[in-house]
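[Q] Does anyone have a clean structure-token version of this?
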Amino acid sequence: MEMVMLTIAGANSSVLHANMPISKHCQTEQERPMKIMVVDDHFLIREALHDLLKQFKDNMIVLEATGGRQAMQLVSEHADISLILLDLSLPDRDGFSVLSE
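[A] Here you go.
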């Protein structure tokens, strides 16, 4: 049995009313591509998740990492990642230690 954990940090939500004009800040946030990182050592899993995520939204960047070290490198290069899908059984590090870092 494979364990899956979903953690969302820094959730950002906004409420817009029907008659309220959208501010420039909201417009730029909607136009900015969402960044999601998939961390898994299995190529087929990464590829399947990448394809599935791209079906939800065209304006999305999917980053891929094969292990904990590569994931932490990508996090340091891309501070604006919105979601990380993390395999807890990585070859180089325990997924929980990556999550806590």
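[Q] Thanks! Anything notable?
[A] Residues 43-56 form the longest helix (14 residues).
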